[in-house]
Amino acid sequence: MTQDIAGIKAPDSQLAKDAADILREHGNDLLWNHSNRVYYFGAEFARKENQKHEPELLYVSALFHDLGLTDKYMSDDLRFEVDGANAARQFLETYNLPDNTVQLVWDAIALHTTPGVAEHKQAEVAMLFHGVGLDVMGDRFDEFPAEKRDAILDAFPRNNFKQEIIPAFYEGFKHKPETTFGNMKEDVVKHFRPDYENKNFCTCILHSPWNE
Q: Distance of CA 199 to CAs 16, 92, 163, 193, 202, Å?
């Protein structure tokens, strides 16, 4: 299950194997390949920047970060990032890990679409954010060693990822578009529903119950 790719190792603990089994069972090839690429990208960024981190926690964070898009773990009213974070918390609590360890993984997943915050937190949070950013939007593409990038893609191919990930996002929260208020996933809703209007922050202020 685990692989050493271009000098980057994935953890092979029972916890890591169980996390992989969950993604395999409830995700699909798109999410499997994407989530694994995110781990290897994030781990390489950590190596390059000398960021001390726990590979097992980064690995679980990567595997669970999009589980909130799946039928098994999506809720009716929470952001998909929070659904994935809650799934990770429920999973990790069965291993009797310290609360701060569980919270770290929760934060990494919940904040992985929150630029301006995630990259300034603990290494696991920041490296997950950077791994997702590289795989989804090509952030820091030229900083990543091309030979390592190619090796990771050989193991976990993109397979038309650019065209398939946006519909996959939409399927995960089209029933609760209001949860995209204030984050970049509102752009996904508008991609499919150009006339959709979420709440407006300024309107929320001006129409609040306060007199002044």
A: 39, 35, 28, 15, 9
